[in-house]
Structure formats: structure tokens, C-alpha cells
Predict the structure.
Amino acid sequence: PDKLSAKVAGRIRGMPKPSVEWYVSDTIIESGNEFKTFHAPTNAVSLTIDNASKWNGALIKCIASNRAGETSSVITLKLVDKEKKDPIKKGTTPVFTTQIAATSHVDGVSFKGSVKGEPYPAITWYKDGIPLNNIGDFTIVTMPEG
């Protein structure tokens, strides 16, 4: 999902009228190319994120303050596919960078392959449809470099 947009909106009241600051992942946001902030005279406020998939899972914080004090609200941005109602996952699909190959040894046989993905994928080996979990004659070694 590329170039999805997201909008966070609410209402803020106070006397005198509060100023509003938006933060994404603890970084203050200025209205510009990727982020658009809005504060209407009717007390409506919003933050629109043009490339929201880049920020999926980020903390979004709104701080309203005036001379009487300040308040804030924090949410986690979770993108959802409107048709499937499923969360849109952040990362990349796992792919084999080296196909699985077998090597015969005096002690038996070993299988080796390389995979990459973000986050790093969980790897499970199977024999006859049953997961192998370092039991019996099987030893599984996973090296994080793929």
C-alpha cells in the first residue's frame, strides 16, 4: 500500500484559544509536503499525513496549550484496508534470496537456504508435514543474516 493518506481529527476548546502542536514519533510536525495541519475557528483540528504507509504503527500526539495549562492525546496510527477490514502490515514480504539446497555429509544431510523480510521472518522446517523443533536427530540453526 503506497501513498495512502490518513487523517486524525478532533476538537479543542479553551480560554484563551489554545495553540496546537502535532508530533509523529516524538518529532514535532510542521505543515508542509508530507503533513498538513489544520486549526479552524470552530475549534476543529486535524493532521493529514499524505504518505501514511511510511508512518504505520507510529505514535501520533496532539498537544493543546494556553496560559492556563496544556493537555495532550496520543494514538497509534494503524492503517486498515477498508474492503477487508484488516490491518495493513508494515514491512516487506519474506523472499528466498538463496533457494533451499541439500548437501550430503558423512553424518547425514543438511539443508540450507537464505530468506529476507522486514521484520525478519519466522522460519519453520517441516518433515512429512510435521514441524521440526530440534528434536531427535534434527538440529535447526537460524542465522539472522539471512
